[in-house]
Amino acid sequence: MFVRIIILNEINFLGNMDSEIYDSEYYHEVKLLLTYFGLWPNLSRFRKVVSFIAMVAMPISLVIPMSFGLKRAIRLKEPIQIIEDTIGILYFLAITTKYICIFIFEGRMIVVYEQIASDWKKIKDKNELEYLHGRAKEGKIITILYLGYGAVGCTIFASTPYLPLFLDLVIPLNVSRDKIYPYYADYVIVDSEKYFYTLYTLHGIFIIILVTMSAISIDCLFIMMVKHSVGLFQIVCYRLKKIGEEHNEKPHECKRLMDDKIIHTRMKEIFDSHKSSIECVDAIQASFDVSFLFIMTMSGVGVSLILFDLLLNLDDLTQILRINSMMFGVYIAVFVICYAAQMTLNSSEIVFNDTYCGYWYNISPNARKYTQMVMVRSMKPCIITAGGLINMNLQSFFAILKTSVSYATVMLSMQEESNMQN
Length: 422
Fold this sequence. Notes:
With 422 residues, the protein is mainly alpha-helical. The chain is 79% helix and 1% strand.
């Protein structure tokens, strides 16, 4: 079904986009990552379909044995194994859903790609370009930091199961140390316990790293797009401020400006640029809306289970460190997308304040109507949502933290009551 959707979509990306923009220092890393995971629009349909099948099949190939492991843990009544397998399954399903959504909504993504390329091409003013350069540079810095954190954190987490082997070699004991399981899988056709390290090395660790990096790549794409929209809103504010300052410096010419067609034209351009900024945010919203709904929902459930898992393992230092690293990773991932969405909200709100505090009273009534339209539209800030149900901002991020702690303590109380009854 998904393959059919992408084949039926006719994409004219190359004709409308200046590819040099995405080969620049600001966007090169994101383009490289998306190309690697088969999400860059310029790729052939065959490459996209093959990448899609691979990126969906790989996590599912690990979810299946994890599901069998979950079934076994339920039968044996092993709460920790049940929790950790559930967390792992939710994690892989969330990332797979994110990848599928980006793949399906490629047409919506192209609208943003083309607008970014068009904006860089049509904006000529040196000061205005500085805003785009500044925000693009910030996006690149965040991208590099996020990629570095993801690569290091994922590598550390994925290599944790090898720690007992290393310690047994460096500081041997009379008996082998217990294994550290990143998940509890049951491969059915082979002895999962006996061949744990072989299966994990050839299958598990590869999928964990690859799937996690694909999710980070998509988040970096979102950051890139959001930073561009922030730059557009700042350009609108700059244009409003510039035209107001020019007129305020020449009060004796106010009468002449009342009928100045040039000012009318410039105000119309400001209105159009504000409209273009809003359309950019709307296109970003349409591209990530569905995937964010899955991510925010599964993150809330996942963090609650991770905290519950942590409370059940307070007597095991190794498990505490491992679970905390996993929880910190989820927090960072959710924080990054909520922070980026918050920046869009803040920048769209500033337009109203800058318009209101400007020198709009010095321009002609005919041009002033565009100022009024900008103010009216900017009274409604641009909000990126998750499925239209959750506003993506820092408030939502902290709400997830607060709610997850509450759910975790409730689950712990229920567990303690169950143990007392038994």
